[in-house]
Design goal:
This protein has 192 residues and is of the alpha/beta class. The chain contains eight helices and six strands. It has a single domain (16-191), classed as Isochorismatase-like (Rossmann fold). Helices cover 42% and strands 19% of the residues. The protein has a six-stranded parallel beta sheet. Helix 5 (118-131) runs parallel beside helix 6. The protein starts with 17 loop residues before the first strand and ends with a helix.
């Protein structure tokens, strides 16, 4: 190619412009999610990889009195000394002032989103991120709903609205960018 065209829009997700949100992977809800074991495994892999890459994480918990704590598998891998954990009662995490203020203060416009349920809290959060000028990156294999159909429709709607839809492995290697990255070997082990 002899000519390069420059635009204001970038399509690559860059580590220094990324942050992550884990939404409502809680004890009383998770067992009812279609393929919940796979989603929890992908979520823990994602969290571990993001931590290796130094991407800030906020974990949301929806009405803990009713839905319980975050599942132990997630809490076992989350470095709570670096991650922010916030309880909410709104479906969209962005409707919670503490969550929104935390997200805005990160000064990172790409927001990697995973969690449950895809068609309720995840989707509403993603739509609000878009409405507020952020670029949500939905990790499809780390999101779930009780119904596979609800999940599929939510993914379709978020994609049409402008969210990036990707997978755990794809985003971790995209953020890594090179096999020379110090985190590459550890991330490769996580993916196996």
């Amino acid at each position: 190619m002899s000519k390069t065209i420059t635009t204001d829009k970038t399509y690559r997700i860059m580590r220094d412009n990324a942050q992550a949100m884990v939404i409502d992977v809680q004890q009383k809800l998770a067992p009812h999610i279609y393929r919940n074991d796979e989603i929890i495994k992908k979520t823990t892999t994602l969290i571990q990889g993001l931590q290796l890459l130094g991407v800030p994480i906020v974990l949301n918990e929806q009405y803990k009195k009713g839905l319980g704590e975050t599942v132990s598998e997630v809490m076992d891998v989350l470095d709570t000394s670096k991650a922010k954990v916030i309880e909410k009662v709104t479906f969209s995490a962005c409707d919670n002032d503490e969550v929104w203020n935390h997200i805005a203060q990160q000064n990172r416009t790409s927001v990697i989103v995973c969690g449950i349920e895809t068609h309720v809290c995840v989707m509403q959060t993603v739509l609000d991120l878009l409405d507020n000028g952020m670029q949500p990156v939905v990790i499809a294999d780390a999101t779930g709903s009780r119904s596979a159909y609800d999940r599929r429709q939510a993914i379709r709607r978020m994609r049409r609205a402008g969210a990036v839809i990707t997978t755990t492995e794809a985003i971790l290697f995209e953020l890594c960018r090179s096999s020379k990255d110090p985190a590459f070997k550890a991330i490769s082990q996580l993916i196996k």
